[in-house]
Amino acid sequence: MRIVYASELPRYQYIVRGTDGIQEVFDRLEHGALGVDTETTGFDWTVDRVGALCLAAGDTSAFFVKNALGRAAKWLANQIKRRRRLVFHNGKFDMHMIRETFGIHIAYPVHDTLVMSRLLDNRGVPKERFPFWSFNHELDTLANFYVHMDASDAHTELIDAIRDVVGRRKNQLADWLVAPVRVQGKYGGRDPWYTLRLYDMFISMIQHWPQPDGYPKLMELYHNERWLMLALRDMEERGVKLDQEFLHRWLAKAKRRTDKLTDKMNRRAGYDLNWNSNPQIRELFWEELELEQVDGEKLNKKVLLRLDHPLATLLLQRRKHSKMVSSGRALLTNLDSRGHLHSHYNQNVDTGRMSATKGFHQFARDSGVRKAVVPSKKGLVLRSADYSQVEMRFAAHFSGEETLINGFNNDPKFDTHAALAKRMFGLRRKREPSHGQRDRGKTMNFAMLYGAGEDAVTSQLIDKISAEEARQSCIELGHIPSRSESPFRSLAKLLRDAVRSSYPRMWSFTKEEEELTKVFGYVVDAYGYHRWLDENEAYKAMNSKVQGSAAHKAKEGMVNVYRELQMGTGQIAIIMQVHDDIVYEGDGDPEIDRRVIALLEDRKNFSVPITADLKGSDKNWQDKESITLPKKRRLA
DNA sequence: AGAGGATGCGCC
DNA sequence: AAAGGGCGCATCCTCT
């Protein structure tokens, strides 16, 4: 038997189906923060709608459904007009739903226990039944962990009740509203109450979270994330206009190419097979054609390239085109009736970066599909502001590596790859590195940021250059490889040593962060975000710090733009974000562009400037060109 | 049938 | 001692 303390459950709990006595319930919800949760017909806000509203405040929680729903929505709208403090769990979703169902728009930042939980611990909390390997940020998991241990059981009971109605086949969560109202209300009504309890705890934890000297308070970061939620919500709602006719033509072309390749490959193989199936390809390659196995049974790009067989070459092409077909199709099915694509942005993933679903994030850049993205209205133009070398700039800032600091500060066209190459290969000031040397510099810059070891660098080199080139580079670094040694591995070793002596501060900074991470359990980025890392993941610390800083800089920039330029007419609007690339629509006024860039950049808070480059087009996203803003006239 | 793992690929 | 970082998606395949 478990003891459930009084404070672990709401004192007053209502299920309200009609308007009788509803005012009494509202009265009880009048004070303090208001917890809000919606129960919906599904997860897609473009088609699904709210079926029940759950509200909580103080010692009361209430579940409004059926005839009470409209009245509750109206009451909520009133509270919002009064700028009542609202607390959600995954509020971006609920705000979409409330807007689409009731026409209620929320124009001020709300609180969100999902965002809070992720800021406090990106790993989440253990689920009760699988505490050792299953962690997440779901409301009932958090409630179970922080509030009381029966929270999950309550949900299980609810799910069971739903299953009694719809059977055990599909994803029942979407069918929430089919359960008897009595069951829905009993457990569903508790959700916003749990949310409030979590909010009370989290806000205090965020308030008191200790930050290292010189780093922003966690509350500042949370504040920015709250604004970001609004910016993302509006960006998702607006969506991205796609040229459907173009997309259909583009898709047909990709399909024709795929089919052609399929035919060709079948003829070549002598029989038809499914070229999407690796087991079938393995059988053909290893057993019938008896090709050499390069890397176990893998059939990835690298292996196929090294096989150097006509079918392997064709397979690579086919994979590319068939991927274009499937993801192009997905794009079309995701369009709304106006031809807009509404991506979904995941605000907090482990590094602090955002991820996106239903969008362009992973689309091949050279596929030409970006031509389908067009301005949503006549007279509007597309603009894209790209943070320039932002991760390398943060690496420079944190490490204090002088070559990088000076380069970024003094040379607007600073070439980091050439700079590293010059140092590694010991070139004098004025001597430019050869093409090959610069390429080694580029490889090692990425290796540095990603924490690549010797093996990774070796295979990267094998991938990119010939043995002769590798030999040549070794010699340039003062080592003549013998016949028996792999020039790639030797070069990897030499390059790593060269980086270490070229950028000693970068090296020691990387090691220091690794050690600190082992002590504290997490690494902190420039904006005060801490990412938890196990001891055996501590080697990721430097990468996390740099990637997280870049991500949070972009978020801060977006919020700056949103708060200043987007709250008015909406003529300017951010429509997409691809990590360090922020795409917006505008009227083409260069003064606006100048302001956007100024809001995105940061030229004073770090030891190197964080800058953004502007590109644009009035036609589509693909055909954008660099824009040089006219010099601002200076007052004499 | 549906869930989830494995594999592979693309973006930053 | 080991490890290029982060993500989402399509497809195939195995298990239940």
Question: What is the topology?
Answer:
Layout: E1 12-16, H1 22-28, E2 34-40, E3 50-57, E4 60-65, H2 67-81, E5 86-88, H3 91-102, E6 111-112, H4 113-120, E7 125-126, E8 135-136, H5 139-147, H6 151-166, H7 181-188, H8 191-208, H9 218-238, E9 240-241, H10 244-269, H11 278-288, H12 301-307, H13 310-333, E10 340-341, E11 344-346, E12 355-357, E13 381-387, H14 390-399, H15 402-410, H16 416-424, H17 435-450, H18 454-464, H19 467-476, H20 487-502, H21 504-520, E14 522-524, E15 530-532, H22 541-565, E16 573-578, E17 581-586, H23 590-600, E18 612-617, E19 625-626
Helix pairs in contact: 3-9, 4-8, 5-8, 6-7, 9-22, 10-13, 12-13, 14-21, 14-22, 16-17, 18-20, 19-20, 20-21
The protein binds a DNA duplex (12 and 16 nucleotides) through residues 169-171, 274, 276-280, 298-301, 319-320, 322-323, 326-327, 330, 346, 349-351, 353-357, 359-365, 367, 391, 446-453, 455-457, 459-460, 536-537, 539-540, 542-544, 546-547, 550-551, 578-581.
Low-confidence stretches: 168-174
Structural class: alpha+beta
The number of distinct helices, counting runs of at least 4 residues, comes to: 23
Shape designation: globular
Largest sheet: 6 strands, mixed
Describe this structure in words.
There is one protein chain. The protein has 636 residues and is α+β, with helices and mostly antiparallel strands. It is 50% helix and 12% strand. A six-stranded mixed beta sheet has the order 1-4-3-2-5-6, with helices on both faces. A hairpin with an 8-residue loop joins strand 11 and strand 12 (355-357). Helix 6 (151-166) runs antiparallel to helix 7 (181-188) and helix 14 (390-399) packs across helix 22. The longest helix has 26 residues, at 244-269. It is globular. Residues 168-174 have low confidence and may be disordered. It binds a DNA duplex (12 and 16 nucleotides) through residues 169-171, 274, 276-280, 298-301, 319-320, 322-323, 326-327, 330, 346, 349-351, 353-357, 359-365, 367, 391, 446-453, 455-457, 459-460, 536-537, 539-540, 542-544, 546-547, 550-551, 578-581.
